[in-house]
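ingest -> fold -> write
write: protein_1
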Amino acid sequence: MLAIRRAGLPASLLASLKHAASLANPEFHKNENLRLSNWNTPRFVRCYTEDLEFLYLPWAMADKATELVAQAGSRLDITDRRADPPPVDVTFTATLRDCQPAAVATIAATSTACWKLHRDGTARCSSSIEYRPVSCSSSS
């Protein structure tokens, strides 16, 4: 998690960070369209938590948080305190499809997101709902 100290943050910046870390809840809108009760169904899915001292954002939002803080006229200094586990000795023995090497290169280019490699050769970031298509010459 990316912990941002709340002390001294303008309310507008805090609201922008929370908004960026929230997603529209498709279940809410489905119920609304079907005229079903939305009792106990949140309108937005919050991908952040907070306490009195910190706002905790997903690590994949580091770039977006840096951008929002810069737009507010400040800068975000990030201290990476993630554990550095010992290396694991493994050997990859499978064969990639034609379009998968490009997707693997996309995944390897960033360490700030949780990427998922899909059968169609695309790599999607599940934590920040980013979509980066990778061209695939053959259809699977």
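write: protein_2
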Amino acid sequence: MLYFNNLRFNQALRSLDAENNKLSIADIAIQSGFNSRNSFYKVFKKKTGITLTLYRKYFKQGSHTETIE
């Protein structure tokens, strides 16, 4: 299960990081294989220590320089 969550998370992270991505967080979560936006939020917060909103804001400012593991 952890392996699949990691695959889903990494796919979602690539989608979030895509400069031309206009999808909502819910759409990214579903397209990445999460059952719901809420389950994606929980995994994201656990892996990164920050919320998706803060992550998107941080990335859009051009401050994103490393991959979150």
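write: annotation protein_2
The helical segments are 2-17, 25-31, 37-48, 52-60.
The domain at 2-60 is CATH 1.10.10.60 (Arc Repressor Mutant, subunit A).
pipeline exit 0
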